[in-house]
Specification:
Order of helices and strands: HHHHEEEEEHE
Low-confidence stretches: none
Mean pLDDT: 90
Shape: globular
Helix content: 25-40%
Largest sheet: 6 strands, antiparallel
Number of helices: 5
Strand content: 15-25%
Strand order of the largest sheet: 1-6-2-3-4-5
Amino acid sequence: MRSLAPDVLHSARSQNSADCVIVSMATIFNLTYSEALLVCSSIEPHVLTRGLCTADTVRALEVSGIDFVRRAPGTFDVETSTGMLDVGPVNKRFADHTVALWAGRIVEYDGQLWLHAADYLHNYMQRPHGLIEVPS
C-alpha cells in the first residue's frame, strides 16, 4: 500500500482512553477508525485496554503493508514532518502517548489542533521520542 502525506486530513476521533495509536494511525494513513483498529488488534488483541507500544505499532504497519519510515529522536523536524509522533514527559525515558503530526501541526486524539508542534510539546511538557513518518 502506498502512503503519501495527505493534502486534506480527516481526523479520526477517539472512542476509548487507550486508542491514541489507533486514532493517529487512522488520521495519518487515511484509514477509518475501524480499519486502524483491525490493523492494531492483529498484533495486540487487547489494544483498546492496553494501548500499543511503538514496536508493536511498527509490526502492525509492516503486516498491513503500509509504507512508512521510522525516525529516531533528533532525525526529523517536528515543525515540518508528517507521521505518528511518539511523545512522553521530558523527564521520562519512554514515550507514553502518540499524536498525529501533520506538516508540523499536532492533531490530538480528542480533535485538538495545534498549529505548531513546539507549542504543544511545551504546553504539555512533552518531548518527541520518535516518529513513524509518511514517506515522501
